[in-house]
Amino acid sequence: MVKKEKKKKTHVPFRLNLLFLGVFVLFSVLILRLGVVQIVYGDDYRRELEKKEEVPVNTPVPRGKMFDRNLKVMVDNVPLDAVTYTRYQETKPKDMLETAEKLAALIEMDPEKITERDRKDFWILTNPEEAEDKITKKDKKVAEKMAEEGKKKPEKYLYDLQLDRITEEEINSFTGDELEVLAIFREMNSGMELVPQIVKNKDMTKEEFARVSENLESLPGVDVTTDWDRFYTYDKTLKSLLGKVSSSEEGLPQENLQDFLSRGYSRNDRVGKSYIEKAYEEVLHGQKAKVKNIKDKSGNVVETEEVTKGERGKDLILTIDVELQLAAEKIIEEELMKTKKNGNTGLLDRAFIVMMDPNTGEVLTMAGKQIVRDEKTGKQTIEDFALGNITTSYTMGSSVKGATVLTGYQTGAISPGTRFFDTKMRIGQLQKGSYRNMGWVDDLTALKQSSNVYMFRTAVNIAGGNYVPGAPLRINTKAFDIMRDSYAQFGLGARTGIDLPNEMVGFKGSETLPGKLLDLSIGQYDTYTPMQLAQYVSTIANGGNRMRPHIVKEIRQPLDNNETLGPVMQEIEPTVLNRLPMPENQIERVQKGFKAVMQPGGTAAGFSSADYNPAGKTGTAEAFYDGPNRKNYSEPVPTTNLTLVGYAPFDNPEVAFASVVPWAYQGRPTNTINKDIARKVMDKYFDLKKERAKAKSTDPSTVEKVDNSKKAQQGQAEVREEQDN
After folding, report:
1. Using one digit for the tens of pLDDT, what is the confidence trace for 341-391?
2. Which fold has domain 326-403+498-507+521-552+574-724?
3. Which class in CATH covers the domain with range 51-86+229-318?
4. How far is residue 97's CA from residue 85's CA, in Å, rounded to a whole number?
5. Distance between CA 102 and CA 224 in Å, rounded?
6. Bridge-partner residues for 432, per DSSP?
7. 239-252 core/surface letters (b: 16 or more CB in 10 A; e: else)
8. Which CATH topology does 88-190 take?
9. Which contiguous run of DSSP H or E holds residue 146?
């Protein structure tokens, strides 16, 4: 039998398959890796390839403007040529110094802001070898030990040693040119990273601006732009009320720093520091432009793009009538200087008048002036003190008697027509009375001739007292709270709600003796602000609604065209804070008494000749001087405050006022400055009204302004109806 030979098996196909499998796996890994690179890290590698990154930068914009009620510009922005510097992440101090030296050859810089610390820092920067010599080996060992123990950063410890060891001679060795470089370097170094910092904007000449513009390529981080500064059209008029704005150097106020930063502000942003500028900061600040800096991997900016366009702040239309305001200020100044020539006026140094629409609460005029003496030169100047209308308070005297009579009605202590015999009252050893004995008087006569005794008897009844001449008077001391709570419904002794910060409430007397209750009833115990007095008389004038006074009338959208006002974004609606809890006929009774005050036989009879049918109430308060010079007197100095409140026309009130003159005279009466100021300002109001009506009738292009009075009256009627129901 023939044996068959076994066929020899080949291993080539298996090895090939193994090779193919290996190649397939490797290709799969490569494809997977490419997919990861492309899909997952594609953007990162593309950015790395382009060597660019995007960094958003906010740039500030001008604030909104302020206009008076007749659309006259009161606060504007003045453009300023400016040089800015932007510090980047990779920027080193020596690079900044080099740029500052180049910039110093192109602009002039005042070194007055340079501090001793600035000089020391600059000396170390410009003298590195000498600064290094001030550190010993022992110092370095101490620093190393501190670092090991984690107590303090060694760099800061050594730098502080260098600062301490710089001599006076060394920091005073800089030349004028070097100080100019330091002044520029100081401004460049004070800004935040990637935020443009203003190096110079004040007193920048056109030549300087042009030189910098022509050399920007050799000045890394430097740019030219247009900055702004606040401009007050009417100089000092209402400037304290309009408020202040921080400079770019001041930046954000430290006390509100974190709040501002959380709202997207930069540290060197300019913000409102006081009053209207501060109260309406969110509105006036505007929307900053957003700019994108495109940087290469080394940190150099290679391109800048605008992401969103900036928009200046929104505009405010104020309730103020600036023409009337200017006239009121001039009248106050003239009357102050004229009255100071009379005797017994050594303490007289200020006067106020507030005018408002009693139906809407719109403040038309908020004038205040104060005589200020320079302690060094002795020279006197008259300064704006409009803020005194809400930040200072005084005893106002008989002007508040309308509130006393209405409180008497409300509590049932008196009724319309109630009569008292006006003769001096004797309470134990205390004697109190009117300026003359008037005999039998009713509520109308008491207001017309300003009977103190009528108010005393009303207060005694409110307190449940029983007046017996010569005997002690026992009262329920809760009467103080009853009367004050009632006064607050008129705005006396309560915040008026005006849209301004730092409003004062006034002071309440602490004693509860019967005589003090009588003083309270005639406005000679608690203190009130001129604005509170204006709100009080407005409440009576409009029939019982306490209106919230406000300075801002409208908020307008800004337009690119600076010559045109934008559309109304928000109109400030009249706000009724409360309604007097008494029938209309009782309020009308007091209104009738107020009208009698300004008729023949009344205490303000001088107004009887006015053709605008006024009504009001005078006030004279015996007080003690508590002004700025009180430290010069060892004993309290008796003085007299003069006031006058009113409104017109009587049958359809459109304007209410409060005239307040503290410390008008000492001793014997010598002037009627409160009445003189009020009469002249009220005359001016109605003269302006006639002039404008005539101009409007002859100029068909005149735009009719929004009138809130009818709207407010309608709202008041609705509130009154709800109260009555």
Report:
1. 999 999 999 999 999 999 999 999 999 999 998 878 878 899 999 999 999
2. Beta-lactamase (3.40.710)
3. alpha beta
4. 12
5. 15
6. 425
7. bbbbbebbebeebb
8. Arc Repressor Mutant, subunit A (1.10.10)
9. helix 137-149
